[in-house]
Write a structure and sequence with these properties.
Blueprint: H1 2-35, E1 47-53, E2 56-63, E3 65-67, E4 72-73, E5 80-81, H2 86-99, H3 124-128, H4 153-160, H5 177-191, H6 195-204, E6 213-214, E7 228-230, E8 234-236, H7 246-249, E9 251-253, H8 255-266, H9 273-279, E10 283-284, E11 290-291, E12 298-302, E13 305-314, E14 317-324, E15 329-335, H10 343-359
Antiparallel strand pairs: 1-2, 1-15, 3-4, 5-9, 6-9, 7-8, 10-11, 12-13, 13-14, 14-15
Helix pairs in contact: 1-10, 2-5, 4-5
InterPro entries: AmpC-like (IPR050491), Beta-lactam-related (IPR001466), Beta-lactam/transpept-like (IPR012338)
Organism: Pontimicrobium aquaticum
Protein name: Beta-lactamase family protein
Length: 360
């Protein structure tokens, strides 16, 4: 009798393991097929994708080359410039200072930058939510005159601050890199340290993001993925001083470190839950109209399931991250060619994960 029971138990365990293996293989195959629609050139630039459930990676793979000239394959440990995903870190930096009572998001920026035009009407909240109306310096025709210059944050702010405003603060939502440059400058003025040092000490080191840093094209960066353009043929990325994207887009990271970042947010390791609630609250314009941006994240949905999203684009690189709070699913993708955007790919993987886990 015992022998029969043991055989039945072993059979059940084997069947369960086979089913689990088949399921994981099927999910892996499905994710592979989504990614290789775009990231299918084994000899060209590639990317890295990570999918996590409950904070644990269930998929992590690299595609293509990290360095085309040397024929170096991409690995999941490669370090990428993440472009505007930097804004998440700038936002949390501001809110960490608010929790220390060193600033308030309702403060007018003239409190910190006395000579800022119209600064008495523009608040930190306006900067965080892209509703300030100040000119986006990346859209100015004169941007190339400073693109290769190493500017101080004050010099960069001075470059655009006297431009006519596009609209009155709070009147519209218009994605704006200048606002996050000003936020970075305010972090420096309030903290008494550089933006780079503030993020390094208070975020990266605090939560163990050991492979993340302020980007630098001159220093040796272990496991760096090199950036490329494709304008009829692949070329190395154009040189731009990384003092220019600054607090709006100058950080580097890995997919594993970005998962640590997501987990730090989920577990209130840097700011309180009440602050996190504010970060992920939709905001309203002066006329009461609601828009789908919090503080550093787009607040959208996939198949009516709420998501928190943000991408990035900087010379030679693109990035995208999607978090699904209700299912605790995080998907992040990096590309080392600005010709291959991971945005649709990452969203399609998130959709697959939603469809898969909503059924279970």
């Amino acid at each position: 009798m015992k022998l029969i029971f043991l055989k039945q138990s072993l059979s059940f365990i084997i069947i369960a393991l086979v089913m689990q293996y088949t399921y994981s293989q099927t999910l892996e195959t499905q994710i592979d097929s989504i990614i290789t629609i775009v990231f299918n050139d084994k000899e060209g630039p590639g990317g890295v994708f990570l999918v996590a459930k409950h904070g644990k990676p269930i998929y992590k793979k690299a595609f293509g080359k990290a360095n085309m000239e040397l024929g170096v394959n991409m690995t999941p440990e490669n370090v990428f410039q993440i472009g505007s995903m930097t804004k998440q870190f700038t936002s949390l930096g501001i809110l960490m200072l608010q929790e220390q009572n060193k600033l308030d998001v309702n403060d007018a920026i003239v409190k910190y930058i006395p000579d800022y035009p119209n600064g008495e009407h523009i608040t930190i909240h306006h900067l965080l939510t892209h509703t300030s109306g100040i000119k986006d310096f990346t859209k100015m025709k004169s941007i190339m005159s400073i693109a290769r210059k190493d500017l101080t944050p004050k010099e960069l702010v001075d470059f655009f601050k006297d431009e006519p405003i596009d609209f009155q603060p709070g009147e519209k939502f218009a994605y704006n890199n200048s606002g996050y440059v000003v936020l970075g400058y305010i972090i420096e003025l309030v903290s008494g340290t550089t933006y780079e040092e503030f993020i390094e000490q208070n975020i990266f080191k605090a939560i163990g993001m050991n492979d993340s840093r302020y980007a630098n094209d001159r220093e040796i960066v272990k496991n760096r993925a090199y950036g490329y353009h494709n304008r009829g043929a692949f070329t190395n990325k154009m040189y731009v001083s990384l003092s220019i994207p600054y607090a709006s887009g100058s950080l580097m990271s890995t997919v594993d470190d970005m998962l640590k970042w997501q987990e730090a947010i989920n577990n209130n390791l840097l700011v309180s839950q009440s602050t996190i609630d504010k970060v992920f609250s939709k905001n309203t314009l002066n006329n009461g109209e609601q828009f789908t941006y919090g503080y550093g994240w787009h607040l959208k949905n996939i198949d009516e399931v709420p998501t928190r999203e943000h991408g990035g684009s900087i010379f030679g690189f693109k990035s995208m991250g999607v978090y699904v709070p209700s299912l605790d699913i995080y998907v992040v993708g990096f590309s080392n060619c600005d010709c291959n955007s991971p945005t649709i790919t990452t969203k399609n993987i998130a959709k697959l994960m939603i469809d898969t886990f909503k059924k279970n």
